[in-house]
Amino acid sequence: MSVTPSVYPLVPKIQKETIVSLLEVGKRADGRGLEDIRKISIVPDYIGKSDGSALVYLGDTLVLVGVKIEPGSPYPDTPDEGVLMINAEFVPLASPLFEPGPPDENAYELARIIDRSYREIKAIELKDLVIIPGQKVLVLWNDIYVLNHSGNLIDASAMATLVALMRTKIPNYEASEGGFIVKKEGYKGGLKVKKKVITATVAKIGNYYIADPTEEEEYVSDARLSVSFTEDGVIAGMQKMGPGSLEEKDIDAMVELSWKVAQRYLTEIDSILKSFEQKSEGRKLEESGSSPQEKKED
Amino acid sequence: MGKSNIKLIDENGIRIDGRKPDQIRPVSMSVGVLKNAQGSALVSFGKTTVLAAVYGPREALPRHMTLPDRAILRVRYHMAPFSTTERKSPAPTRREVELSKVIRESLEASVFTELYPRTTIDIFIEVLQADGGTRTTSLTAASLALADAGIPMRDLIAGVAVGKVEGMLVLDINEAEDSGGQADMPVGMMPNLGKIVLLQLNGSLSREEFKEAMKMAIKAIKEIYLIQKQTLREKYAKITEEEREVE
Amino acid sequence: MSDVIKPTFYVQQKDIVLPGDLIAEGRVDINSIYIFKEGSRYYSSIVGFVEIKDEKVFLIPVEHAYLPKPNDLVIGLITDVGPTYWTVDINSPYEGQLPVSETLLRQTQATIDTLRKFLSIGDHVLLKVISFDRLRDPVLSMRGKGLGKITSGKVIEISSRISNMLLYRKRSIVETIARETETNIFIGNNARIWISGKDSIMEDLAVLALKKVESTDLNISTLDLIDFIRQEKEKRGGVSG
Fold first, then answer.
1. In chain A, what are the domain boundaries?
2. How do residues B135-155 score in pLDDT, each as one tens digit?
3. What is the count of residue pairs from A and B with beta carbons less than 8 Å apart?
4. CA distance B213 to chain A (A)
5. What is the predicted ipTM?
6. Is the dihedral of CA B194, B195, B197, B203 positive or negative?
7. Looking at the predicted structure, is the pLDDT value of residue B241 above 60?
8. Where does the S1 motif domain lie (chain C) (predicted)?
9. Closest CA in chain B for residue A102
10. What are the structural domains, with CATH classification, of chain C?
């Protein structure tokens, strides 16, 4: 059952008025313009024990994604494909509003938005995750861990998911003679991300559309629209959020703005990954093979 | 959405159930179908059948769950175990939790909750048979049930899903089209005010296709809205006639 | 400018309106919490009937939750006894409060025991609403002619629409039932009805007749109603009037 939240942080009226009056002169409380996004920083391969991971800061919002790949059963209708599972946890340390316990509707919604954006467009090559067709495949668990909620969890999670998946290596599972699945040393290779998928959220406050809303902006917004795109601009998913309404012209404008924002996210991710890969290549040569994470573990 | 070997649209552009691309399924609606509820509605789009009931506004317990300046809405979207091809466990799935939320947020855009502070309005939705478009059918039924319960709202909400099947945009997709298609885009709207309250997209569309799909949805929603209004009017038409006789 | 000021009505007296229906445009005297404004247009928010009186537009909702108004007479059910007041279910989203000061019980005597003796959980009471603003629970009073504990007869609940019709428009139906069953029938503003007669059989007959009126959605002629009551009376051993 979904219940109107009654533990909303109370945004003082004057604050809402301030937000709106700032928007009228093209500014936001944190000094950004309406279409500006917050500072992004990304740490790929943050968790050495995972098969792929990324820590993403979007302003003060902090999201960690860890990917684990394990043997499992295929879906009956896709016997020759691995399984993609996207899950989200809003852990209590991330916000005074989060409670311990099973995921709530917001966590489910977030996970399903990200999941849909990858699933239908077949962004991940799941055929590479088969051990015995129809019987044993690899299940890819993409766990989204929200560590600090300062608004726009969806975009931060989408970025962390994309980077983690692009950094994911497929463990070397093989079927032994007795039909057992055994894990061998090393990796089979990198996970093939066929399409880079990203999600960008735009909020509507009064007559204004703003990119990358903060938590406070989310609370005062009329509604939000999260749009998922592939890198070539095809819409791969969409979700209207919040208890308000939008007109057709709002949606058109918000889709356009979210595409602009999505391209910015992708550019940022590309440049961060490029410099990270160059650095780790360099380190690999110096340290001849052992990766920095494994060292940290000892 | 898996690939399917069945052809979903023939060479004449006719869909597997005989419809044209821009045609909705036969729609039937009735209100006041449950005695106990303050308001109720039964809505079918083809084989998809949804029952919605409204209880309240009523005192919310526990008290701390209420809001001092408006009513809270509690919405449960639930699929009956026998509603699907394979039995569905009655325990709520992630999908049902999410859909309960998007339906609640859509209804909150329409209900004047500020008229009933400190109370709760419960909206229970049971999908009795699922054949595609269950969330938009649910939203259409829930809105009718709210009107039947006498809960003040800005407008009725009507909804429909547009899909992309074999490269073609089609209206009000059924389950076969949903699972064999490339996109499913449910839309819910308050037609008189031109306000969209529910919008999701599962699958992929170009931006041009998206705009076209939106236009198709809005056009169909206006048709569905007329059926909703007719349904409500029919229930009360007798009473006015009776009253006029008395005058 | 002039067409903004001059109102345009899109509805007529007694029309049924639905949520989202356009009612009027321009400067109109609106007198209903069920009509809302968007720009210069007025819309209905409920299923209801239009009433235009002295250029003012009202909406009578067909179904609605009972919201108490001062001076309403309500039939309440005592659900709790507090130190200085009783909690009263008045068939509304809001619970009523009956303070000791609004009864004939002297405040100096007010202890939990005297309160319980005076009115206890499960008692029906006929009360008047003195104040209500939706932020605080409605305050009720027992001071006034006819008000007090209901000690005999039967109390039933019917739909708010039928109750309002019986109360304001179709008094004749109520009078017919009362006459045929020799009972007194009191209709509260909160869709509860109190029936009291000389014996239980006649009261049951009145209840049955009221339920019949409700189930036929008021579509029953006076003659048919009288026939119905007389037939039922026969079945019960022909108590004659």
1. 19-297
2. 999 999 999 999 999 999 999
3. 129
4. 12
5. 0.86
6. positive
7. no
8. 71-143
9. B94
10. 2-61 (2.40.50.100), 73-149 (2.40.50.140), 154-235 (3.30.1370.10)
